[in-house]
Specification:
It is a single chain. This protein has nine helices and seven strands, in the order βαβααβααβααβββαα. The protein has a single domain, classed as 3-Layer(aba) Sandwich (Rossmann fold). The protein has helices at about 15-25, 45-50, 75-80, 90-100, 105-110, 125-130, 135-145, 170-180, 195; strands at about 1-5, 30-35, 85-90, 120-125, 150, 155, 165. By secondary structure, it is of the alpha/beta class. Bound molecules: flavin mononucleotide.
């Protein structure tokens, strides 16, 4: 199982580091592609250390490719993957994917991914952004393409302080979506005791992500193209 993980510029980018860690433990070989914005939230070195592979940052990088593999690295990385996931997926990158705009390494590799692989998108953003009709239209376009399983963000207190839908699902749920394993049931919330009722109002329980119709599994293991270890586009 070869997982291509995309990380975009959202506050939940730090959770992607745990996803890499858990995916490696689950038996995935992981390679990471980051947007330039994502590097403001988490350093590529973190992902390089956790995955054991260089991180792709630059779609226009040339050179550094081993003999015979060519310099078209966004294509060789796309062909390498049996599984793909973008977590967190920002509103900006979600819109680019929906419109086929490939203006950085992440959006270019994702446009080059073949049909038939497991391809999970995990949008995460402020509730107002998530509820925006244009974002919802973009989600619909992505779903209608038949290429993606779009996970619904969960509902809780967000980093901005708002309480609502927009949070990245738990890492276990992301992994479950990738492997097809059933997601664990939502935790039962105990009824408040008398003492607790004087306490601040509890946050709403975290809803499990709603998996949308999954893309069909890959037909079989694809041949592993050679992947450059180092080059101008890697850190
Ligand atoms: C502190 C901070 C947190 C942000 N969190 C999010 C977020 O969770 N989701 C989102 O869609 N955008 C978020 N943004 C805005 C994105 O970083 C911005 O739209 C950026 O252009 C996304 O680029 P990318 O999709 O190429 O990574 C945040 C911005 C800042 C400054």
């Amino acid at each position: 199982m070869r997982l291509l993980l995309g990380v975009t510029g959202g506050i939940a980018a730090y959770k992607a580091a745990d996803l890499v860690s858990q995916a490696v433990k689950a038996g995935f070989e992981v390679r990471v592609v980051m947007t330039p914005s994502a590097t403001h939230f988490v350093g590529p070195l973190t992902f390089e250390a956790l995955s054991g592979h260089p991180v792709m940052l630059d779609a226009l990088a040339t050179g550094g490719a081993p003999e015979g593999s060519g310099a078209v690295q966004h294509i060789s990385w796309a062909k390498w993957a049996t599984h793909a996931c973008i977590a967190p997926l920002s509103a900006a990158s979600l819109g680019k994917l929906a419109c086929g705009i490939s203006d950085n390494a992440l959006t270019t590799v994702w446009l080059a991914l073949p049909p038939g692989i497991v391809n999970v998108l995990a949008p995460a953003m402020n509730t107002q952004m998530w509820d925006h009709p244009i974002v919802q239209r973009n989600v619909k376009w992505l779903e209608e393409s038949g290429r993606y399983t779009v996970l619904s963000p969960t509902s809780k207190r967000l980093a901005c302080g708002d309480v609502g839908t927009g949070a990245l699902p738990e890492v276990a749920d992301l992994l479950a979506a990738l492997t097809g394993a059933p997601t664990p049931p939502p935790q039962k919330v105990a009824p408040p005791t008398k003492a607790a009722s004087a306490a601040p109002i509890p946050l709403p329980p975290v809803a499990a992500p709603t998996p949308r119709p999954a893309t069909p599994p890959a037909a079989g293991p694809a041949p592993i193209p050679a992947i450059p270890k180092k080059g101008p586009g890697f850190r």
